[in-house]
């Protein structure tokens, strides 16, 4: 029960409480008036933020900002020159190949096919305009349909459909070309031909991963090897068999314009598991066996050389070839003699096909020592280097059962296994630990790319080029039967192309101050890591970017990774190329100075902007 004392106290405190509440109300009213007058800016800002985030959806997906925090912004009154807008080239340059142009080629000697080698224009003759696609150009068929079909409008040349009709190279049907899979020496199809080779060569075992197709035609051999998980580097010259390499790339098959001439092939030593010539018309028996010696250089110890066509089976075909028995018999004898000198062991000869195998080391091969041995210490230093009739020595081994240069694992295990060149410390600055770290880093980078370019890894991007491949980490992380990557190692970078091949990938040496050995519109995606930093003082960025535009297909994509200052220069030039561009922060956040540049080439064909066409400079 409450006492009288407590009842009296409650009555006394009730008026005091009312007065305190009234006082507080007045105080907060005055504070509110003060804030409304403009002095309480901090709270006003807080209120605005509260109102904007009242629905608790702070970062709605539609407004996510992936743009870099270091975007290039052109100053209104900048002293920098305005963005140069590049005009379209004349329609006659639709299939322009800067270093293999016919007019320039015809000024060089025909001896040893010198005129079909690379002859690039001097700086003042470079074409600095945009190569347009032919009228009616259509995005190529997706792989694997592209292996068998190509749009006529994309490669409008019917010559081969007539000249090679009986050999099933290519047929013209309606508005498309059809590729039945035939070849000069395999008119019944590449599949049956490869099955014959597989009776001798362990094609299914995983030991055969990289191949070289010399004088490839439309590259049907390489096209049908892809489904067997074998990457063939196909090459052929730009000659009267018009557009054969262009057809190959349109089909989605790795290929470059190239020839056996007077200079080395742009590949490292011990690169290929097998090399192939199907009526390639290369004079193997000439020049003291120089071309067979070059195949020996690029062929891996234990690798295979396949020859089909002349002079094999001369007893049946010598009249068709319009040659005497003595002539073709002597040619085959010279080839056999050179193969024996190289210590290649003949494994098979039947009909039009013969197969040799290179020994795994030089221990049991005294004949090689009796001929001229190449004196160069670096057998991978081949860019524009003159070829000579000499034999490239095997790397030293301790016993006769050891593979010279190191044994490779079966594919796909070899993709991430430590390559022998790394294990043997043959690449300056690259250790086993740094190689493994590089692999981890590129898996992270590629995962990031796939978040930005969602179709990367699908058949949308089938023909891909890495313009500064390093150890091949980008291609390895991206590896898929849906695509292939041309790994380019710049001639001014550390020579790592041998490592790339030891991983079961393919690639080529190149100097990006010059045009690449391909036709326009042959790649779906171009990637480059630190390429522009590498070439910063070597040649003009615009020349590299114009070359990228030439080889990139309409609506193809570009991914560059480089420093922010360099990429801002690139972005300014790219605006003049009509690319849609975006600069994205590094995966580790905006404070990292390295950024990612994304671009898409716009669709432009002949006749879209005739008023801006540029004729000969």
Describe this structure in words.
- By secondary structure, this protein is an alpha/beta fold.
- It folds into 2 domains: 97-358, Rossmann fold (3-Layer(aba) Sandwich), CATH 3.40.50.150; 413-613, Rossmann fold (3-Layer(aba) Sandwich).
- Helix content is 29%, strand content 17%.
- The protein is built from 18 helices and 19 strands.
- The strands form 4 sheets. A 7-stranded mixed sheet has the order 7-6-5-8-9-11-10, sandwiched between helices. Strands 14-13-12-15-16-18-17 form a 7-stranded mixed sheet.
- Strand 13, helix 15 (497-502) and strand 14 form a beta-alpha-beta unit.
- The longest helix is centred in the N-terminal third of the chain and has 36 residues, at 4-39.
- The model is unreliable at 1-13 and 33-78 (pLDDT under 50).
Question: TL;DR of this structure?
Answer:
The protein is α/β, with parallel strands linked by helices. It is built from 18 helices and 19 strands. The longest helix is centred in the first third of the chain and has 36 residues, at 4-39.
